[in-house]
User: Fold this.
Amino acid sequence: MRIALIDLGTNTFHLLIAEIKQKKFDILYKTNVPVKLGEGRINDNIIIPNAFERGINCLETFAKTIKNYHVDKVKATATSAVRSAENGQDFVKVVKEKTAIEIEIISGDEEAELIYQGVKLSGGIQDLSLIMDIGGGSVEFILCDTQNLIWKKSYNIGAARL
Assistant:
């Protein structure tokens, strides 16, 4: 089975396409595009028209790549910029209309959980650890050990908001 994963960050959109075979995966394609969705008025909770258009154009390109790779399943998640924008749902709707990509807007807590799971799977947690993920629209702090996520918090103070 082929899957495509899309991460719609405040500054950068990422696309990864992989082939899954018996609990193993091979990366077939990987890219990131500096869309800068949070440019302009992120602190006013607005995706400005130019950023909105850049995001749509990027996802139209991603959709073509996904089609060319004959992907079976697409998972797209949006974080801080879309989550906090008054027109974030409009962005999600236009993306679906133009590309058929369905975007899930995740909460800051869900984002922190996914960060923890990713770092844990990478083997990067050896002991009691504090993970800090500095994104464009938010910063997540995660206190954990090799077995448990102990505490997590997401703050809307990412690099694009400063």
Summary: The CA atoms of residues 2 and 70 lie 7 Å apart. Residues 2-105 form a domain with the Nucleotidyltransferase; domain 5 fold (CATH 3.30.420.40). The chain has two domains: 2-105, 108-161.
